[in-house]
Amino acid sequence: xxxxxxxxxxxxxxxxxxxxxxxxxxxxxxxxxxxxxxxxxxxxxxxxxxxxxxxxxxxxxxxxxxxxxxxxxxxxxxxxxxxxxxxxxxxxxxxxxxxxxxxxxxxxxxxxxxxxxxxxxxxxxxxxxxxxxxxxxxxxxxxxxxxxxxxxxxxxxxxxxxxxxxxxxxxxxxxxxxxxxxxxxxxxxxxxxxxxxxxxxxxxxxxxxxxxxxxxxxxxxxxxxxxxxxxxxxxxxxxxxxxxxxxxxxxxxxxxxxxxxxxxxxxxxxxxxxxxxxxxxxxxxxxxxxxxxxxxxxxxxxxxxxxxxxxxxxxxxxxxxxxxxxxxxxxxxxxxxxxxxxxxxxxxxxxxxxxxxxxxxxxxxxxxxxxxxxxxxxxxxxxxxxxxxxxxxxxxxxxxxxxxxxxxxxxxxxxxxxxxxxxxxxxxxxxxxxxxxxxxxxxxxxxxxxxxxxxxxxxxxxxxxxxxxxxxxxxxxxxxxxxxxxxxxxxxxxxxxxxxxxxxxxxxxxxxxxxxxxxxxxxxxxxxxxxxxxxxxxxxxxxxxxxxxxxxxxxxxxxxxxxxxxxxxxxxxxxxxxxxxxxxxxxxxxxxxxxxxxxxxxx
Length: 603
Fold this sequence. Notes:
Layout: E1 2-3, E2 7-10, E3 23-25, E4 28-30, E5 43-51, E6 54-60, E7 62-64, H1 69-72, E8 78-84, E9 107-110, E10 130-136, E11 142-150, E12 161-165, H2 177-180, E13 192-195, E14 201-203, E15 218-222, E16 232-236, E17 242-244, E18 250-257, E19 263-270, E20 277-279, E21 281-282, E22 289-290, E23 297-302, E24 307-314, E25 323-331, E26 337-345, H3 356-366, E27 373-384, E28 395-409, E29 415-418, E30 420-426, E31 429-432, E32 440-444, E33 447-451, E34 464-466, E35 469-471, E36 473-476, E37 486-488, E38 490-491, E39 498-505, E40 539-547, E41 567-577, E42 584-596
Parallel strand pairs: 17-26
Antiparallel strand pairs: 1-5, 2-5, 3-4, 5-11, 6-10, 7-11, 8-9, 8-10, 12-15, 13-14, 13-15, 16-18, 18-24, 19-23, 19-25, 20-24, 21-22, 25-26, 27-28, 27-42, 28-29, 29-37, 30-33, 30-36, 31-32, 34-35, 38-39, 39-40, 40-41, 41-42
């Protein structure tokens, strides 16, 4: 049985081509191919596995796009395919498949039609990171191809027992069994078995002389418990891949050198730089943070036992498709390898109300405006004019001070300045399944809502827990005030454009700086406290937010990932009249971050 390293397939629109490179080494066939596909930006791997006549023990490294076992082995004269799924721990022996696996607990088999035992099949799919035993009929070797995406899953070992598994390895540079497990106390000197074509498990008697093979599966005995993952290991924040969903722009991964020597670990983009990405680079002397583009190969030096945190971010502004993906291989000089999938979308999916007609209209509009949602941030005041001298040019302040700003953009691009909003949850609905009347299925999924009207809060459920009670998340600011829940802004919320708004602070508003409820000269009542009489002045605030291509707060440093997509900012200007006999001019900068993709308020 021979297996090859995976080949990377990057689907691109309107491109059709085939690039193949075949190398014959130690009975392994290695091929790397690129195909066109209607699925733009989707990156997959094709693992080619050559089956020899007789018995083969293989290790599948990817999750098949089509995991139907009949389709994967279509046209291949297999007698049977087996998977070991133990129902309990403790067995300390293995069975030669030549002796038969049919009636043994823990073994699941597939028998293709028209074999008479086909009705006994209880194995229907092929999974990633899984070992299989395959018996090939005839006298000619055959090749199967499994196309899919890698899944990063921690390997689990059976305590004081055998585990049937394999490892992705660099073809042609595979380590010996002894070197691979040299730093795993639970596996040092323990039995290892490999399968021969006759269906008999043979002991690996010289582990430091015999090399492992990528794509092959073996029985490994674990003495006690173990969490060993190989010469290098990888940990990500969540899930089985780097999935940059919704508000995620940056994600951490932890590289670990489990060997006893210094390792140069390479983070390799397979199939080219298909996903626009950056990596976080911190200057150890100045602590300055930069975000260079992630190259095709990035090498990190890791000392024995060292863990290294690597922060990767996607650059949505450089996306050519709505969704783009990348396959990575992480390798070291000793032949170890890990596979990792990453992907992200150009924008967050909009959260819309359940009305079908309105939902469809908004979805069409959302394609034109990718900034819909709630934006929260700060305007930083850096200069103020001298009102007492009638100055019109803002002068630098002794110390900058912040103003919290909240804006909402709907699916049409209309921007509103808001001062108070609560994020809540609307429960979905269920219906009786037409396939099984005893089951329920989702009719309308639940969704997040944004409420500027507090009287609507009881109609929804919270999104977090506070003092044991369900509660919403409130965003608010005291940096400005106006009558009503929100106020429409003029302009376009996008790069190189601006939005502006005129905020009126009426004489009767509690937040008017001239009004004092308990002061007879500033309470807006006559001397008898009976009749209204204006004593406070109206104050007008003209605010302008100019969006820039680059981060004005750090113009000499590369923009942070997400700038122009989930992070917006630029120049802030304000003119205040009514507070002084002369207008006051203010300037500074601002930065906003999208905290919710809900495109509509109060529904």
